[in-house]
Amino acid sequence: LEMLSSIPEIGIILSAVAVVFLALTIVSRSLGYKWRWVHGTVISILLFTIGIGLVLVKTEALQENHVSKLPRGKYQFLAEVIENPSEKERSIKVLTKIRGIFEGDSLVKKSGRVLLYFEKDSAASNIEYGDNLIASTYFNPLDEPKNPGQFNYKR
């Protein structure tokens, strides 16, 4: 619940639902058995609201420091290799997690996963899981699927 308090709207909603739940608990005891369904409804709403809050907090692409929010351009960044590199016919595919973007002499913390392709050479073939890489490149966002039912890599 600490993370939920960082988003004021979620905190207000949770507080309102908790107050309504407590009020209904007190009132329904005096109303009798036929109003017991109200408890289940309020608990369901409360759990649904907590679920939405967790999605908002935990979804990396919704964070303000996500690399998808950067304007197009060339960036120098620090990234950690999070999967074993896979060798293709003419390149090496490396999935990385961005740690930060260099702005001048400082490293500004950013987050997000980036797929990098390196030409096959001796340096690229030595990349391993857990390595930290400093690279300079243009970020190209993934295109939306052009055919109905096609897999959406952007998600």
Report on the architecture of this protein.
With 155 residues, the chain is α+β, with helices and mostly antiparallel strands. 30% of the residues lie in helices and 26% in strands. It is elongated and about 75 Å long. It starts with 7 loop residues before the first helix and ends in a 17-residue tail after the last strand. Mean pLDDT is 81; it is low at 1-5.
Helix content: 25-40%
- CA-based gyration radius: 24 Å
**Which ranges are low-confidence, i.e. pLDDT below 50, for 5 or more consecutive residues?**
1-5
N-to-C CA distance: 27 Å
**Tally of extended strands?**
6
What percent strand? 25-35%
Shape: elongated
Number of helices: 2
Mean pLDDT, to the nearest integer, reads 81
How would you sum up the major sheet?
A: 6 strands, antiparallel
Q: What structural category do the secondary elements indicate?
A: alpha+beta
N to C succession of SSEs = HHEEEEEE
Features:
disordered N terminus, alpha+beta, 26% strand, six-stranded antiparallel beta sheet, 155 residues, elongated, 30% helix
